[in-house]
Structure formats: structure tokens, C-alpha cells
Design a protein that fits this description.
67% of the residues lie in helices and 0% in strands. By secondary structure, the protein is an all-alpha fold. It has two domains: 1-68, lambda repressor-like DNA-binding domains (434 Repressor (Amino-terminal Domain)); 71-103.
Length: 103
């Protein structure tokens, strides 16, 4: 992972949330060009701002850096719901997932 990953990940999550760079900048309490400066590679967020960005997307820092997880908030929701299932329903869900992946 590198600086480019951070920039691209913020852009990906921002687009999933369907929010403009300007709105996100304002929502985080910055000038309108703050997120644009990150996206364009002019700057990186401080650690404090990085945590604020994670809070903004309602994800943990670990979920932010999970490169294989395209939509970490959705993945977490699915995991939380799976934890509520009993053994039989989990096995049925696993069978359905395996069937879907064969397509």
C-alpha cells in the first residue's frame, strides 16, 4: 500500500457515499478544496483527519486499508447479520454464497 492507495480509497468511498469533494470537505470542517488536495496528491490527511475521514465513512481504519473490500460498511453489516444466524442457517448461507460464486 502506498500514498496512491490512500487517495484512491478516499475517492472510492466518497463516490460510494455519493458526495462531492466540496461537500465532504465542508462536512469535515475544512475549506472546499481540502479533499480535492488529497485526491490530487497535493497533500495527505493528518492522523487526526484520517480518523475523522474513517468516521465520516462509518468504517474503521482497518476497513479503510482492507484493499480487497470494495464496500467496507456493507461488508461489516453483512458480517454483523451473519453473526446472528444459527449453525443451520449459516450452512445454508454458505451453500448459497458458493452457488452464487459459480455463476
Amino acid at each position: 500500500m502506498d500514498i496512491e492507495f490512500v487517495r484512491e480509497r478516499i475517492t472510492q468511498l466518497r463516490l460510494q457515499k455519493d458526495v462531492s469533494e466540496y461537500k465532504m470537505s465542508y462536512d469535515l470542517g475544512h475549506s472546499r478544496g481540502y479533499i480535492n488536495n488529497i485526491s490530487s496528491g497535493k497533500t495527505l490527511p493528518s492522523m487526526t483527519e484520517f480518523f475523522a475521514i474513517c468516521d465520516y465513512f462509518e468504517i474503521s481504519p482497518a476497513e479503510f486499508f482492507s484493499a480487497k473490500t470494495e464496500n467496507p460498511k456493507l461488508s461489516r453489516t453483512v458480517t454483523e447479520l451473519l453473526e446472528q444466524l444459527d449453525q443451520e442457517d449459516l450452512e445454508l448461507t454458505l451453500t448459497n454464497i458458493q452457488r452464487l460464486l459459480r455463476r
